[in-house]
Design goal:
Strand content: under 5%
Largest sheet: 2 strands, antiparallel
Shape: globular
Radius of gyration: 20 Å
Order of helices and strands: HHEEHHHEEHHHHHHHHHH
Helix content: 55-70%
Length: 364
């Protein structure tokens, strides 16, 4: 038992969490100062931006620094070199983070940002590896010439899924910390050391940022952070989970990212059905629905944390307890729906004057 707990790769991942966490924790104050110098501040406007005071962006730059420092240091320490996947992940992560930072400063047009996301994702698919096949309940599906386009589609989906869920203090950070932790645990179970190192570094960097971002936030991760985290998790899933020869190579990442993916897909079709551009921002995401039901911002975040944790646990259990895992996923969705319609079901609605709606502007 103790030998399993204290395996070398487990200890390395603990160090990865520590390095990433300390790195981003110490660098957030510097990111705040840089945001003020660049005047990259999210100011309340009484309409969409309801936080009570100006909040700096550039939290994503601190997450980037913590992640890169931890991933590179741990790679050298464990393997004596930087694996190709880590090198591509770092280069692509820096690129996508700075695209997001530019968007935080000057608000890029949605189509321009979308095309840039495709460009970075294409770089990763070509040089870091693509999803060549998936294994679905024992049946292998080969993608052949479609492997790169499918990989790019998957990565852009996850990048935007994280970006869309970044609407309340601590929401995206907490959810992605759970997801990246699950990626790390799954990679360790699979024996994929490279994916485990990358996941540990990312999770640590997010955790180091969270103390500054929970209610009430003193800094936002911005598109720089959301796009970086989405890109990194998508990349790790590509060269980690999708390479599994087991029946769950496609199901596990679907479970891990279930809530952000559902929110994004629903938002996409909702906007199309309304005759709107899929890039048009609205106030109908999961967290908006929960707050419309009367939940405070803090309680809405905790509810989504709980549902995300259930999905993540289900992804770990899926290979051995398939039916239980599926049931857990269904119950997580039912739980959120009950909260969303609680005023109808229970005949009451909690007070919500909007003062706790600490949203960043959704530039998506």
């Amino acid at each position: 038992m103790l030998e399993t707990v204290f395996r070398t790769e487990n200890i390395f991942c603990l160090f990865g969490l520590l390095f990433g966490g300390v790195g981003s924790l110490l660098l957030v104050p510097l990111a705040k100062r840089l945001a003020r110098i660049c005047d990259c501040i999210d100011r309340p406007d009484g309409e969409r931006k309801l936080h009570p005071y100006p909040v700096a962006y550039f939290g994503g730059l601190a997450i980037l620094a913590g992640f890169v420092i931890s991933a590179l240091a741990l790679s050298f320490f464990v393997m004596g070199t930087v694996p190709r996947q880590i090198a591509v992940l770092v280069i692509g992560g820096i690129a996508i983070c700075f695209i997001g930072a530019i968007d935080d400063m000057i608000s890029l047009r949605p189509l321009v940002k979308f095309l840039l996301q495709i460009g970075v994702s294409l770089f990763s698919a070509l040089f870091g590896g693509a999803i060549e096949y998936v294994n679905f309940f024992g049946h292998t599906i080969e993608f052949g010439v479609f492997s790169v386009p499918i990989t790019v589609l998957w990565m852009v989906l996850i990048i935007n899924a994280v970006n869309l869920i970044d609407g309340l203090d601590g929401l995206a950070g907490g959810v992605t910390a759970l997801e990246s932790m699950t990626l790390m645990l799954t990679a360790l179970l699979m024996g994929n050391v490279v994916a485990a190192i990358a996941s540990a570094a990312l999770c640590g960097a997010i955790l180091g940022f969270l103390p500054y971002n929970v209610n009430r936030a003193t800094i936002f991760m911005g598109d720089a952070g959301a796009m970086l985290i989405g890109y990194a998790m998508a990349s790790i899933s590509v060269f980690g989970l999708f390479k599994a020869q087991a029946l769950f190579s496609i199901v596990v990442p679907a479970f891990i990212f279930a809530l952000p993916i559902l929110d994004t897909v629903i938002a996409f079709f909702r906007r199309l059905l309304r005759g709107q551009s899929p890039f048009t921002a609205d106030h109908a995401h999961i967290h908006h629905k929960l707050m419309d039901s009367g939940l405070s911002a803090g309680k809405s975040v905790l509810a989504i944390y709980a549902a995300s944790a259930v999905f993540c646990l289900a992804s770990v259990l899926f290979s051995r307890y398939t039916l239980i895992a599926i049931l857990m996923g269904v119950l997580a969705v039912v739980f959120l729906k009950l909260l969303q319609y609680r005023s109808i079901i229970f005949g009451k609605k909690g007070a919500n004057d909007g003062t706790e709606l600490l949203e960043k502007e959704e530039s998506r």
